[in-house]
Amino acid sequence: MAPAPLRDVVARHGLAPLKKLGQHFLFDRNLIGRIARAAAPLEHCDVLEVGPGPGGLTEALLDAGARRVVAVERDARCLAALADVAARYPGRLEVIAGDALAIDEAALFHAPAKIVANLPYNVATPLLLKWCRTPERWLGLTLMFQKEVADRLLAEPRSKDYGRLTVMVSWRFAAKRAFDVPAAAFVPPPKVTSTLVTLTPHPAGAVAPAAPDALEAVVRAAFGQRRKMLRSSLRSLGLDAARLLAETGIDPTARAEELTVADFAKLAQAYRAQVPY
Ligand code: SAM
Question: pLDDT tens digits for 160-191?
Fold first, then answer.
């Protein structure tokens, strides 16, 4: 039997969208199908979905052949609608009622999985940074962001959008714009355009070596004062910034936005050598 229109599902379960949960629902199953296709291939894959809401994307992922979908939803009002989806795909949908920021993904997946989500914008960045800490767990991420966040993920050095988020994410993943989605496609419409982004983990040998916490520290210090030269912005690390830059061969008068991800990785290694723990 064909699933009910999502507008009816939302009305039947009384899912009046809540701003505090970043609820902007998609009702157009063609558009939802395009999102699932951007994550292809899904056959034989386990998928983590954050914020399934009424379950439209969840269903599209299952239709696209996902072996198992684990959907984490914070709004208990959505659980009955999701139970209806689970009943149509026996044994393939596990719904977890809770906060995606707090879950332990290692306990949910025993093999690398994909993440696909129309993310709640208020927690999109902390969720992405959380997933970046365990890249080996993910085969690929297909995520809807506010366009402004997507622009930061896709930014090149020497541009205004290039910053901490760009470096921390592109150290681990290759980011690609899939397509933009106009605000009018969502209910209620957000204030801005959205962008679907795909993130593919770099092969292990292609990641510039660095300790994640050291990289986080140098990137935070450098972009914390992005208008300043590195010899001055890196002083907030509490060590000899001039020595750090001399050791890495990086121009002390350069600014954070001029450095590539590989430069930041070099700085992180030199920093770790000076401040082991
Ligand atoms: N997937 C649905 C769709 O495409 O129509 C809903 C997407 S809506 C943008 C974001 C969803 O994330 C909402 O269902 C909201 O309740 C849920 N959500 C918000 N914060 C969450 C969190 N911290 N953990 C899990 N789900 C959350």
Answer: 999 999 999 999 999 999 999 999 999 999 99
Q: Give the 3-state secondary structure of the chain.
A: CCCCCHHHHHHHCCCCCCHHHCCCEECCHHHHHHHHHHCCCCECCEEEEECCCCCHHHHHHHHCCECEEEEEECCHHHHHHHHHHHHHCCCCEEEEECCCCCCCHHHCCCCCEEEEEECCHHHHHHHHHHHHCCHHHEEEEEEEEEHHHHHHHCCCCCCCCCCHHHHHHHCCEEEEEEEEECHHHEECCCCCCEEEEEEEECCHHHCCCCCHHHHHHHHHHHHHCCCCEHHHHHHHHCCCHHHHHHHHCCCCCCEHHHCCHHHHHHHHHHHHHHCCC
Query: Which of 10, 15, 19, 23 has the most ligand 1 atoms within 8 A of CB, as the residue to mutate?
Result: 23
- Let me know whether 19 and 119 are in one domain: yes
Domain at 140, CATH number:
3.40.50.150
Task: Determine the pLDDT at residue 2.
Answer: 73
Domains: count for the chain: 2
pLDDT of 131 higher than 70: yes
- Does 4 sit in the ligand 1 pocket, CB within 6 Å? no
pLDDT at 277 > cutoff 80: no
